[in-house]
Design a protein that fits this description.
The protein has a single domain, classed as Immunoglobulins (Immunoglobulin-like). The chain is 4% helix and 41% strand. The longest helix is centred in the middle third of the chain and has 4 residues. It is globular, with a radius of gyration of 13 Å. The two termini are 16 Å apart.
């Protein structure tokens, strides 16, 4: 799997994740963990739900592992990115934008 830049929350509260633009070329994938400032703000036992910004289920190539607070992407199809998902944690929500980059 490819390494991605660490996820970070920018000034607007949007979580940006940058992945190599070649991630779909060889059906590669990527993994990233929610940043510590989000993980520590989720009280123990809080229900966490992940959806697209439209409220739909995640695409089949993207999964979220709740115990590790990690997103795992496999066989990312061409044209699938950018993608915005929402992490719902009780009364709080965080938007995560996954973007391809040439860097």
């Amino acid at each position: 799997m490819n390494l991605v830049k660490d996820a970070s929350v920018n000034e607007s509260g949007l979580l940006m994740v940058y992945v190599p633009s070649t991630v779909h070329a060889a059906s590669e994938g990527f993994v990233f963990r929610l940043p510590a400032q989000i993980v520590t703000s989720i009280p123990e036992g809080t229900r966490v739900e992940i959806t697209t910004v439209e409220g739909n289920a995640l695409p089949t190539w993207l999964n979220f592992d709740l115990p590790t607070r990690t997103f795992n992407a496999n066989a990312v199809p061409a044209g699938a990115l950018p993608l915005r998902v929402v992490v719902h944690t009780g009364s709080r929500s965080y938007v995560v934008e996954i973007i391809e980059t040439n860097n």
